[in-house]
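Summary for the lay section of the report: proteins are chains of building blocks that fold into shapes. Here we show the chain for T-complex protein 1 subunit alpha and then a coded description of the shape we predicted for it.
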Amino acid sequence: MEGPLSVFGDRSTREAIRSQNVMTAASIANIVKSSLGPVGLDKMLMDDTGDVTIANDGAPILKLLEVEHPEAKVLCELADLQDKEFGDGTTSVEALNMERNNLYQSLQKHAKL
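The coded shape description reads as follows.
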């Protein structure tokens, strides 16, 4: 049995932290996945100064997000690196990451049986 883990002064179990990370990855993927593909939708984003940006690519969408969760920061950085290295595929990377996390979560449930 895993004991509690102290993160930023809060006492959380490893399973709770894993669950939060999976939910965070799903949230990030849900933000960008509707912009995926030839019939993807545009997103209208407003920054702090009120400037509006319309984007249908994951990279600019994720750059404008202000995230605090460590997993979300990693995923936004992953998308940024994907965009810098290959110029495309940021939305696909986030969608694949969400599916990987879903698979991981289902494997964890079956491992406990």
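Put simply, here is one thing we learned. The chain has one domain: 4-111.
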